[in-house]
């Protein structure tokens, strides 16, 4: 028999080592918790449904693609830091509506209202950066690199600028779709007003699970939101002139100052004081009931997503899981080679 004090010391040592490992994050965080979710992850392979996505798809056909995309994205983000949130949002939108087919980049035509002009006003932007990259790539290797791949790489590079190293891998080989319908947006894009069950159902329909839902919501660590999207929570939650009880009441007062009733076109940071920094701070404020939207607060209403939200406060865990969820998101609904529905657009705004 081990003396009690020795057993206690050993136990203490194990607990401490574990705590240090978890707190220090990095690649060595405890994977055990996520195993159940990852194993249950029937939905989506990071290679796309038919394995259409590859590492280095353009290695032969356009070897400079990664440098060109990074170059142009970084110089734009250096000048306009909010672009990181914009490009991440564009990629997210593209993935959720008709899959990663660059349908979000298509302009409306006289006979068709495209996704980017959908109501509710999505205030999407960053299209000019994609155009700039596309033009440079057409000069280097015309007709080769799809707009869908450009968007996926540019979103990664924009977020990664702060770190000066890629924060996730982007496999390539996507083809561009030929259809973009404003009417596809509403049913597919997760809404800031949605509750937990609606959000989870939407993610599941794309092959994403509850971990992806929480982790990708962490994208709100950068960027700003329209004040008009908070009015209901702040001023008239149940129609009685009340405030959402799931919102920290002190923070609600702060928000009312930033988003007065008469200024629907104002903006507010989604991650207060940290909206230009890609970090796990969103999960810190979320757990203080300071998430901006109902869809943020919704993550605390389910015990599983609430627990995942707590774990994501650790930077190493969040970065690690974000990389994985982004790869899954980038594989949604990919049009690959040999699938007759796709093409490589010459101009990202119009079908060939
Ligand atoms: C990247 O940008 C630098 C500086 O503007 C330029 O010298 C270089 O040629 C660019 N590289 C590519 C591959 O576009
Ligand atoms: C959408 O936003 C743009 C830019 O903020 C604005 O000019 C336009 O009027 C808005 N459209 C709608 C339908 O709200
Ligand atoms: C690339 O440009 C050349 C010269 O203009 C043209 O002959 C060729 O067909 C183009 N390739 C593609 C794939 O568009
Ligand atoms: C969530 O929202 C949907 C759609 O508005 C609604 O049908 C459903 O009852 C809500 N679920 C809960 C648990 O409130
Ligand atoms: C609050 O909501 C109720 C019910 O939707 C509505 O009748 C009322 O006009 C709203 N009040 C304000 C100040 O917007």
TrEMBL record:
<dbReference type="GO" id="GO:0006979">
    <property type="term" value="P:response to oxidative stress"/>
</dbReference>
<feature type="active site" description="Proton acceptor">
    <location>
        <position position="93"/>
    </location>
</feature>
<keyword id="KW-0349">Heme</keyword>
<comment type="similarity">
    <text>Belongs to the peroxidase family. Ascorbate peroxidase subfamily.</text>
</comment>
<keyword id="KW-0376">Hydrogen peroxide</keyword>
<dbReference type="InterPro" id="IPR019793">
    <property type="entry name" value="Peroxidases_heam-ligand_BS"/>
</dbReference>
<feature type="disulfide bond">
    <location>
        <begin position="147"/>
        <end position="348"/>
    </location>
</feature>
<keyword id="KW-1015">Disulfide bond</keyword>
<dbReference type="GO" id="GO:0042744">
    <property type="term" value="P:hydrogen peroxide catabolic process"/>
</dbReference>
<dbReference type="GO" id="GO:0020037">
    <property type="term" value="F:heme binding"/>
</dbReference>
<feature type="binding site">
    <location>
        <position position="99"/>
    </location>
    <ligand>
        <name>Ca(2+) 1</name>
    </ligand>
</feature>
<feature type="binding site">
    <location>
        <position position="279"/>
    </location>
    <ligand>
        <name>Ca(2+) 2</name>
    </ligand>
</feature>
<feature type="binding site">
    <location>
        <position position="103"/>
    </location>
    <ligand>
        <name>Ca(2+) 1</name>
    </ligand>
</feature>
<dbReference type="InterPro" id="IPR033905">
    <property type="entry name" value="Secretory_peroxidase"/>
</dbReference>
<feature type="binding site">
    <location>
        <position position="190"/>
    </location>
    <ligand>
        <name>substrate</name>
    </ligand>
</feature>
<keyword id="KW-0575">Peroxidase</keyword>
<feature type="disulfide bond">
    <location>
        <begin position="62"/>
        <end position="141"/>
    </location>
</feature>
<feature type="signal peptide">
    <location>
        <begin position="1"/>
        <end position="19"/>
    </location>
</feature>
<feature type="binding site">
    <location>
        <position position="271"/>
    </location>
    <ligand>
        <name>Ca(2+) 2</name>
    </ligand>
</feature>
<dbReference type="InterPro" id="IPR000823">
    <property type="entry name" value="Peroxidase_pln"/>
</dbReference>
<feature type="binding site">
    <location>
        <position position="97"/>
    </location>
    <ligand>
        <name>Ca(2+) 1</name>
    </ligand>
</feature>
<feature type="domain" description="Plant heme peroxidase family profile">
    <location>
        <begin position="52"/>
        <end position="352"/>
    </location>
</feature>
<dbReference type="InterPro" id="IPR019794">
    <property type="entry name" value="Peroxidases_AS"/>
</dbReference>
<keyword id="KW-0479">Metal-binding</keyword>
<keyword id="KW-0560">Oxidoreductase</keyword>
<protein>
    <recommendedName>
        <fullName>Peroxidase</fullName>
        <ecNumber>1.11.1.7</ecNumber>
    </recommendedName>
</protein>
<feature type="site" description="Transition state stabilizer">
    <location>
        <position position="89"/>
    </location>
</feature>
<feature type="binding site">
    <location>
        <position position="94"/>
    </location>
    <ligand>
        <name>Ca(2+) 1</name>
    </ligand>
</feature>
<feature type="binding site" description="axial binding residue">
    <location>
        <position position="220"/>
    </location>
    <ligand>
        <name>heme b</name>
    </ligand>
</feature>
<keyword id="KW-0408">Iron</keyword>
<dbReference type="Pfam" id="PF00141">
    <property type="entry name" value="peroxidase"/>
</dbReference>
<dbReference type="InterPro" id="IPR002016">
    <property type="entry name" value="Haem_peroxidase"/>
</dbReference>
<dbReference type="GO" id="GO:0140825">
    <property type="term" value="F:lactoperoxidase activity"/>
</dbReference>
<keyword id="KW-0964">Secreted</keyword>
<feature type="binding site">
    <location>
        <position position="101"/>
    </location>
    <ligand>
        <name>Ca(2+) 1</name>
    </ligand>
</feature>
<comment type="function">
    <text>Removal of H(2)O(2), oxidation of toxic reductants, biosynthesis and degradation of lignin, suberization, auxin catabolism, response to environmental stresses such as wounding, pathogen attack and oxidative stress. These functions might be dependent on each isozyme/isoform in each plant tissue.</text>
</comment>
<comment type="similarity">
    <text>Belongs to the peroxidase family. Classical plant (class III) peroxidase subfamily.</text>
</comment>
<keyword id="KW-0732">Signal</keyword>
<dbReference type="GO" id="GO:0046872">
    <property type="term" value="F:metal ion binding"/>
</dbReference>
<dbReference type="InterPro" id="IPR010255">
    <property type="entry name" value="Haem_peroxidase_sf"/>
</dbReference>
<dbReference type="GO" id="GO:0005576">
    <property type="term" value="C:extracellular region"/>
</dbReference>
<feature type="disulfide bond">
    <location>
        <begin position="227"/>
        <end position="259"/>
    </location>
</feature>
């Amino acid at each position: 028999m081990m003396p009690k004090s020795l057993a206690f010391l050993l136990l203490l040592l194990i607990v401490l080592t574990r705590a240090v490992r978890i707190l220090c994050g990095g690649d060595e965080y405890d994977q055990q918790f996520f195993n159940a979710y990852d194993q249950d992850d029937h939905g989506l392979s990071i290679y796309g449904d038919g394995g259409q996505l590859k590492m280095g798809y353009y290695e032969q056909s356009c070897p400079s693609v990664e440098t060109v995309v990074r170059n142009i994205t970084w110089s734009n983000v250096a000048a306009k830091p909010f672009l990181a949130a914009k490009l991440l949002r564009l990629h997210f939108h593209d993935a959720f509506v008709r899959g990663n087919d660059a349908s979000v980049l298509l302009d409306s035509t006289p006979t068709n209202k495209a996704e980017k002009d959908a109501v509710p006003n999505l205030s999407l932007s960053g299209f000019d950066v994609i155009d700039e990259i596309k033009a440079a790539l057409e000069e280097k290797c015309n007709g080769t690199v799809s707009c869908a791949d450009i968007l996926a790489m540019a979103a990664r590079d924009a977020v990664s600028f702060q770190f000066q190293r890629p924060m996730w891998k982007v496999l390539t080989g996507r083809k561009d779709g030929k259809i973009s319908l404003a009417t596809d947006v509403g049913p597919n894009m997760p809404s800031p007003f949605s509750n937990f069950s609606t959000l989870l159902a939407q993610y599941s329909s794309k092959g994403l699970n509850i971990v992806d839902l929480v982790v990708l919501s962490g994208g709100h660590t950068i960027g700003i939101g329209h004040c008009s999207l908070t009015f209901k929570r702040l001023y008239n939650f149940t129609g009685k002139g009340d405030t959402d009880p799931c919102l920290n009441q002190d923070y609600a007062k702060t928000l009312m100052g930033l988003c007065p009733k008469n200024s629907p076109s104002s903006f507010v940071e989604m991650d207060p004081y940290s909206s230009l920094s890609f970090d796990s701070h969103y999960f810190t404020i979320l757990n203080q009931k300071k998430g901006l939207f109902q869809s943020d607060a919704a993550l605390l209403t389910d015990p599983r997503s609430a627990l995942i939200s707590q774990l994501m406060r650790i930077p190493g865990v969040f970065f690690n899981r974000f990389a994985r969820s982004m790869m899954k998101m980038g594989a949604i609904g990919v049009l690959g080679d040999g699938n007759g529905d796709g093409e490589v657009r010459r101009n990202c705004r119009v079908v060939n």
